[in-house]
Design goal:
Elements: H1 2-14, E1 21-24, H2 30-41, E2 45-50, H3 53-61, E3 67-71, E4 78-80
Length: 86
């Protein structure tokens, strides 16, 4: 179900193409991480949000996201990680 949710969201609804910029909230989660990879595969620049340094590191080094916003547990606070251009 996770894969189908991400696939429909990215390819049937969003339809990103090369040069587009896509923001994926909760990119460290099951659906979000797959949606981010699908958007990257379509050629889009992908910015994600995630909670925690380990998730941010995984998303940039292993999954290739272009930038991340590290969302803290307190509401309405976000700190861009190194290299983020938001």
């Amino acid at each position: 179900m996770t894969g189908l949710t991400a696939w429909i969201g990215v390819y049937d609804i969003l339809r990103p193409s090369a040069g587009d910029t896509v923001l994926v909230t909760a990119a460290g989660g099951a659906v979000g991480s797959l949606a981010a990879q699908l958007a990257k595969r379509a050629g889009a620049r992908v910015i994600g949000t995630a909670g925690g340094a380990e998730k941010c590191d995984l998303l940039t080094t292993r999954l290739g996201l272009d930038a991340l916003a590290w969302v803290w547990t307190r509401p309405s606070t976000a700190v861009p990680t190194t290299g983020a251009t938001i």
